[in-house]
């Protein structure tokens, strides 16, 4: 498994930069935590959601991907549950090497994020892994009758979007020639 995991990450330019995290997560941490890995990673995911509190699903999706956890999409949603699909090259590589790869960190992160965003007690469960499709489905169950005030006490985290912004035209510095002046100067030199 170790050689295969290494090769899956290092030979894929799209996820090569994520190799250090995969090494720690699927190598070191799983050895350290042993049979307690699921509950500890779930708790760790909830803890990270408190530290990096997103204010809406779009920011959560962006943050999730920026954190190297995979591509996150909402499959279905109602007042008592949200079904999330996690896929992408990172998830695919982890599942291809280990069909029992742990995704409880992601489950905890999603549960706590939804709880904070909605102000309702929420917990998550890992529904299914599809090794063939390289995806994981996590359902966050929401208790519409059980509110929490945690969303009021957690400072929101500002997610930086990857959207490309249009360059802003800047005024020339004082005593600096404009592009038009430089072009005219170049034209005069060639005459």
UniProtKB/TrEMBL annotation:
Residues 158-191 are annotated as: Disordered. Residues 182-191 have a biased composition (Basic and acidic residues). It holds the Pfam family DUF2507. InterPro entries: DUF2507, NO_sig/Golgi_transp_ligand-bd. This is YslB family protein. It comes from Nicoliella spurrieriana. The lineage of its organism: Bacteria, Bacillati, Bacillota, Bacilli, Lactobacillales.
């Amino acid at each position: 498994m170790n050689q295969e995991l290494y090769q899956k990450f290092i030979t894929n330019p799209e996820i090569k930069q994520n190799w250090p995290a995969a090494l720690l997560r699927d190598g070191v941490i799983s050895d350290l935590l042993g049979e307690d890995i699921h509950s500890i990673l779930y708790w760790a995911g909830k803890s990270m959601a408190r530290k990096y509190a997103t204010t809406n699903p779009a920011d959560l999706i962006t943050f999730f991907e920026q954190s190297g956890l995979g591509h996150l999409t909402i499959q279905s949603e109602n007042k008592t549950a949200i079904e999330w699909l996690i896929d992408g090259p990172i998830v695919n590589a982890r599942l291809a090497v280990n069909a029992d790869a742990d995704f409880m960190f992601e489950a905890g992160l999603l549960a706590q994020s939804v709880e904070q965003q909605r102000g309702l007690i929420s917990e998550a469960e890992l529904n299914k892994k599809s090794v063939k499709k390289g995806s994981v489905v996590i359902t966050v169950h929401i208790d519409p009758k059980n509110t929490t005030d945690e969303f009021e006490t957690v400072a929101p985290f500002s997610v930086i979007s990857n959207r490309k912004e249009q360059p802003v035209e800047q005024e020339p510095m004082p005593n600096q020639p404009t592009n038009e002046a430089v072009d005219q100067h170049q034209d005069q030199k060639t005459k």
